[in-house]
Design brief:
The complex is a heterodimer of chains A (126) and B (405). Chain A has 126 residues and is an alpha+beta fold. Chain A has a single domain (6-116), classed as SH3 type barrels (Roll). In chain A, 29% of the residues lie in helices and 29% in strands. Chain A has helices spanning 6-10, 48-55, 57-70, 104-112, and strands spanning 14-16, 22-25, 28-34, 37-46, 77-80, 84-87, 90-93. A four-stranded mixed beta sheet of chain A has the order 2-1-7-6, with no helix packed on it. In chain A, strands 3-4-5 form a three-stranded antiparallel beta sheet. By secondary structure, chain B is mainly α. Chain B starts with a helix and ends with a helix. The chains are: A alpha+beta (126), B mainly alpha (405).
Chain lengths: 126, 405
């Protein structure tokens, strides 16, 4: 059996959905402790606030201030570990990125800015 | 046949893409103040960039990940914050200098003040990124940048004593102004070895879909491209040494560089200098704006590719849009472009360890590189370079204070 090192291979890895759409990185991991059973990896976390916590208290303060300034609710996307299909150079999930909140800012920028500029949208490749 | 075309294109990129605002300014300053004596800095800079480009291209081709991807994945977010923040800030300063370089070329050509050119240049650069593809940006900039070969023509026309030029390729102590000498040496190194260059190069390897089959092409192009590109940079130093040093002209502003090629080539020399300054700085503007967007997008795992419609990777496209606008502001406000360039080059030199030192680990990690890990020669070169960058980091601030300005 080929082992997986959680920190080496999963934490900070590129997340892609089943169509290989990039949907952020694994910013955090949740390990569930269960009575009488071995602990298991429960969830992957994606979100700036998780990242800020890993960096340090000063970053939490900065990112908190920034989100208050712009009135953004910091959001953490929780992806059940069961959704993971492949772990190699990317972590591939058996979901559609559009069904999660990881592309919220991508979509917002697209709808409010990019699509309104000529040449922004169009056929898939340029 | 396809491989030969790829190598040719890579060499063209090396020649047409090497000169830009930083290498033009620092090589010319070096030549005008110390003759051929700082030639070693140009040589060392080109060899260093050669090592880093070969390594980051190999990393991308083998692992299918860019350098920025690997820095985040292997070293975690706490470490990655350093190359991310340092890379963003330094690249933004260099980007502003490049826009300034284009603006000054236009000012010298038209007489219209350079501040007024900042926004038109930013807009044109943005349109090209918004509508263009990776190969248009990379190859277009490289092809047009071939105009910089005029410096080789200019140097040959001035008949330098080539043995003296060769003697400058070995470092020697200066007879006067030691602090200024080492300061310019570090600036020249910073101008040659920019992190945005090898970050951009490794992203380009992914954009072009490199695999292990491209390793030979990668090796040849990074060597030949930098031999020719570095050679041109040396020619700038040679021309400046022959034109400015005997006349005791110190370069305090780009406008003084305007006549650098005139003694050798007459009025066409002036036109070709402006074309070289304007075109190469504009090409580099495109590359740095992309490099910054690549760094941020890859570090945070966003969708990114210059070959996608902006709508498909809106965070990436909005990033380069904002970045170009931000970088145009100092030029719009009329900062001293040469001063900005000099500070940017020293900061670039000081910023190198945060990417070069982890590269030593990455290039020796079998999990990442498989069979293509560094051999002994590559390791001696890369580790030597990592040590050099740390020395530069320690020396940069004292040299800026003693030898800058």
């Amino acid at each position: 059996m080929k082992g997986v090192h959680l920190v080496h291979d999963v934490l900070d890895a590129q997340l892609v959905d089943r169509k290989r759409q990039k949907m952020g990185r694994v910013d955090g991991l949740v390990i569930e402790l269960r009575d009488g059973e071995p602990p298991r990896v429960a969830e992957l976390l994606v979100g700036g606030s998780v990242l800020a916590e890993r960096i340090g208290r000063w970053m939490v303060a900065i990112s908190g201030a920034v989100s208050r300034l712009f009135g953004i609710e910091p959001e953490v996307t929780r992806i059940p570990f069961e959704q993971v299909r492949v772990i190699d150079s990317c972590v591939e999930l058996d979901i559609d990125a559009s069904s999660t909140n990881t592309l919220r800012s991508e979509r917002w920028l697209d709808e409010h800015i990019v699509c309104r500029i000529p040449g922004g949208a169009g056929p898939e490749r340029k | 046949m396809k491989k030969i075309a790829e190598v040719a294109l890579g060499v063209v990129t090396g020649i047409g893409g090497f000169l830009e605002v930083g290498s033009l300014a620092t090589s010319a300053q070096g030549g005008s103040e110390f003759g051929f004596q700082l030639g070693w800095a140009v040589l060392l800079g080109s060899i260093s960039l050669m090592i880093l480009m070969e390594a980051s291209g190999r990393l991308a081709a083998v692992s299918n990940r860019t350098l920025a991807d690997q820095l985040r994945e292997r070293f975690g977010i706490r470490f990655f914050l350093a190359p991310l923040v340092v890379g963003l800030v330094v690249s933004l300063l260099v980007l502003a200098s490049e826009i300034g370089g284009v603006a000054l070329a236009l000012q010298m050509a038209t007489g219209v003040r350079f501040q007024l050119w900042a926004l038109p240049i930013a807009f044109l650069a943005w349109v090209l990124l918004w509508r263009g593809t990776f190969s248009i940006v990379e190859n277009g900039a490289a092809m047009l940048g071939l105009v910089s070969i005029v410096f080789a023509v200019g140097a040959a026309a001035l008949h330098p004593r080539w043995t003296s030029v060769g003697a400058g390729l070995l470092p020697t102590r200066p007879a006067h102004d030691a602090a200024r000498y080492w300061y310019l040496g570090v600036s020249i190194l910073g101008a040659s070895i920019s992190p945005y260059l090898y970050m951009f190069y490794s992203s380009g390897a992914i954009e072009d879909g490199w695999t292990t089959e491209d390793l030979a092409v990668n090796r040849i192009t990074s060597v030949l491209g930098n031999v020719f590109g570095g050679g041109l940079s040396l020619m700038v130093l040679v021309v400046a040494a022959l034109v400015f040093l005997p006349r005791h002209i110190h370069i305090d502003a780009y406008e003084q560089m305007g006549l650098i090629l005139t003694p050798a080539l007459g009025h066409p020399g002036f036109v070709f200098f402006l074309a070289t300054l304007g075109i190469t700085c504009f090409g580099t503007t495109l590359e740095i704006a992309l490099a910054i967007a690549y760094l941020l997008a890859q570090g945070l795992g966003w969708q990114w590719s210059e070959n996608l419609r902006p709508s498909q990777d809106s965070r990436f496209s909005v990033t380069y849009t904002v970045v170009i606008l931000l970088a145009a502001i100092p030029i719009l406000l009329g900062v001293n472009v040469l001063g900005l360039t000099n500070i940017s080059m020293v900061l670039t030199a000081a910023s190198l360890p945060v990417t070069v030192v982890p590269m030593v680990l990455l290039m020796n990690d079998r999990d990442v590189m498989g069979k293509s890990v560094n051999g002994i020669v590559a390791n001696v070169a890369l580790i030597g370079l990592a040590v050099l960058t740390c020395v530069i980091l320690l020396a940069a601030l004292p040299l800026q204070l003693l030898g800058g300005g």
